[in-house]
Amino acid sequence: MATLKKLSVIAIVISMSLFLLVNADVYFEERFDDGWEDRWVKSDWKKSENMSGEWNHTAGKWSGDPLDKGIQTTQDLKYYAISAEFPEFNNKDKTLVFQFSVKHEQKLNCGGGYMKLINGTINQQVFDSDTPYSIMFGPDICGENNKKVHVILSRNGKNNQIKKEISYTIDQLTHLYTLIIRPDATYNILIDNEQKQSGSLYSDWDILPPRQIRDPDAKKPEDWEDREFIADEKDSKPEGYDNIPSEIPDQNASKPEDWNTEEKGEWKAPLIPNPEYKGPWKQKKIRNPNYKGKWKAPMIDNPEFVDDPDIYVYPNLRYVGIELWQVRAGTLFDNILICDDPEYAKKVAEETWGEIKYAEKAEFEKAEKLKKEEENKLGTPLNDDDEEELDYEEPDWEAKLKEDDEGKHDEL
What we know:
Belongs to the calreticulin family. By secondary structure, this protein is of the alpha+beta class.
C-alpha cells in the first residue's frame, strides 16, 4: 500500500513537471534542421565590397553527432550577418530566456561568438552592425587582453554593458550560453548550464541613475581622525644619531704598491657603506587610538533617480540575429532558444549540448592525436589554415558603446 502511495506521488510530480514544461512559452527555437534557410535571411552587408562571408550548414570538423548541424562561418577576414524573424512578443510580467550554443573550431584570435535580440521592424536584407538591437549576448575575443562575455542591454538609445566580469572557457569545443532576465529585475548568466554571474539590472548595469549617491554638500568634520597610524611621541632620537656617517673608509683596503703620490696625491682608503648608519631618523609609528576610518560622504537619495518597474521589459522583440567580424572563420552556432521558462531551457540544453559534449570531446581529442602523429612523421608542425598569422585590428568596444550612446541607436 505504501509503495502504491509513493508511486502515485511520483506520478503526480512527473505530471506536474511535464505540465509546466508543456506550458512554457517558446517564442523561437532553432536547431538548424532541414528548411533552416527558409527561416533565416542572409544580409547583403559588405557584399558590394566583397567582404561578406559565407555560412556553411555543418556539424563541424568534430562533433558528437554528425547529423546535429548548425551554421558556421567559413571565410577569414570577413563580416557576417544573418537574422530570423519570429512572432513579436512582450516579456512584461514574464521571464525572458535567451540561449544558444557556439563552438570556435578555429582557435579564435579575433572575432565574436555573440548573438542579438532585436525589437521593432528592420530590413533583414541590410542587417548590419549599426542595426539597433535590444540585447547583445555572448563571447567576444580579440587579442590576448580583450576577452569577454558581452551582456549589453539597450534602453532609451543607450547600450549598457554589464559591469561584472564573466569567466568562461576558451577552447575548440561547443559551449552553451544562457541569459535569464526575470520580472523582479534579477538575472542569471549560465555557461554550460553552470551559473557564472547573477545580480540585479539596477546595480550591474548603468541603465538607470543610482538610487543613492554620496552627498555632494557633505564635508568632513574637523575633528575626524582618518590617520590610521601616528608618530609615537614617546619615541625620541638617540643621542649622537646624526653624527653617524653614511660611509666610512674601508679598513681592509691598502695602498697599491705602485701608487704615485706626486701624480695622484696622498692615498686615501675608498669609502664603503657604513653598517651602523640607518638612514635619516624617523619617529616610530603606532596605531591611532582615535582612528575612525577613511571619511566618506553619507549616502542620500539621488534626486535624478526615477524608478522604472519595467526596467526588464522589451515590449516588441521580433528578431534574432548574428552579426560578426572574424579574422579566422570557423565559429559554429546552434540550438538557439528564446522562451519564458528556465526549466524548459535547461531541458533543451540537456537534450542538445548535454547529449553531444562527451562524444564531441572524444572526437576532438582523436583529431588532435591524428594531427600530432602526422606532425611527428613529417618532423614539423602542420601549417593549416588555423595556424596562419593574420593581421587584424582590435575593436575598441568602449568607444563603440560611447558612439552608440550619442544617439546613433534609437531602440528601447
